[in-house]
Amino acid sequence: MKKLILILAAIGFITTAATTKMFLPTDKTVTEGRLSKENRNAFIEACNKCIKSCSACETLCSKDTKMPLCTQFCKECVNACKTAAKAMSVNNENAKQEREKCIIACEKCASECEMFTTNPCRACATDCRTLIELCNKLK
């Protein structure tokens, strides 16, 4: 009886080990294109900084009827940065595409904000450029 229990336990252990191994990220296709934790954290921090400055810029520019593009581009940038940061935080397969969308939104936002001299616009443009530079390094 003891031998039977030991044999069944061994079979259970082998079965568990064999099925668990399937889920380890040893396959290149699973880990390909993923970034290190440090790079992901740096990207998320830069996104959060960009979100904060773009939100402040959007708030200021929404009060001025001469700056509708600035307001629109800041909103788009905030949304793109939030989506990219979320994708990066879980390191999912869409993170690279979301980073690309983030670069496009930041580029438009920075180009528009650089035309204005207010502190929120300047900070927004600077943070967008910093995020673009980081994204390009992560490619």
Describe the structure.
- The chain has a single domain (37-138), classed as Substrate Binding Domain Of Dnak, Chain:A, Domain 2.
- Residues 13-32 have low confidence and may be disordered.
- With 139 residues, it is an all-alpha fold.
- 79% of the residues lie in helices and 0% in strands.
- The protein is built from six helices and no strands.
- It has helices at residues 2-21, 28-31, 37-61, 68-89, 95-113, 119-138.
Question: What's the layout of helices and strands?
Answer:
Elements: H1 2-21, H2 28-31, H3 37-61, H4 68-89, H5 95-113, H6 119-138
Helix pairs in contact: 3-4, 3-6, 4-5, 5-6
CATH topology title: Substrate Binding Domain Of Dnak, Chain:A, Domain 2
Radius of gyration, CA atoms, in whole angstroms: 23 Å
Straight-line N-to-C gap: 60 Å
Under the CATH scheme, the architecture is Up-down Bundle
Shape annotation: elongated
Largest sheet: none
Report mean pLDDT, rounded to a whole number. 82
Unreliable residue runs: 13-32
| CATH class wording | Mainly Alpha
**Element string (H = helix, E = strand):** HHHHHH
Number of E-type strands: 0
The tally of domains stands at 1
Helix fraction by DSSP (H/I, runs of at least 4): over 70%
Coarse structural class: mainly alpha
Binned strand content: under 5%
Supply database-style keywords.
139 residues, mainly alpha, Substrate Binding Domain Of Dnak, Chain:A, Domain 2, 79% helix, 0% strand, elongated
Quick overview:
The chain is an all-alpha fold and 139 residues long. Helices cover 79% and strands 0% of the residues.
